[in-house]
Amino acid sequence: MAVAFDNNAGASVFGTSVTTASFTISGSNRVAVTAFGRFTALTNIAVTCGGVTGTLITGAEVADLIGLYRHIAPATGSQTASASWTETASASVGATTMTGVDQTTPANNGTSASGASPQSLSVTSTSGDLTVTGCIVNSGETNHSSDQTNKNTGIYGNTDIGPGTGTTTHIWTRVGDTMRIAGANIVAVAVAGWGPLLGLRNNRLVVAA
Asked: The pTM is what?
């Protein structure tokens, strides 16, 4: 089974919390990945999607600027994603929901990069998985773009997804700006019932019991 895109929603605000418009979550083996972008250090950060509090993906953070959070089994139906913090500041939340994701270890290979535009981030992946990155720029603009599939645009912390076909490179661009990028690999649920492939017998596949 391969990871598949389900839906997305994003929002930006100047304040102490941000919530997206309602969007529909569906499918089985669900996981949401939420990018929380901001322009300064914040405290008491809490990120939720579909009623599930997010956990920061190890390695998928540029400190005090952007981080990716994963949410296992968010509720189906009409839901929102949100973030809250203590200080009054500009920030954004961009959620992407996916199906076919491992429910025990949904994300791995967290990584990040910073530098002048264009800036790339390579995420180690496996066939059937899916890569996600979030990017925020130091100018506070919302119109930066990726060479992969943009999913949350028009917010401070734009997000995209890339194919799980091996290591995937995401290139973010906004001329004359500095990019801060966090990324991770989203792991496909294992297919049960198949042992190691032993070969062919009478033109039929033979697997170990």
From this structure: 0.90
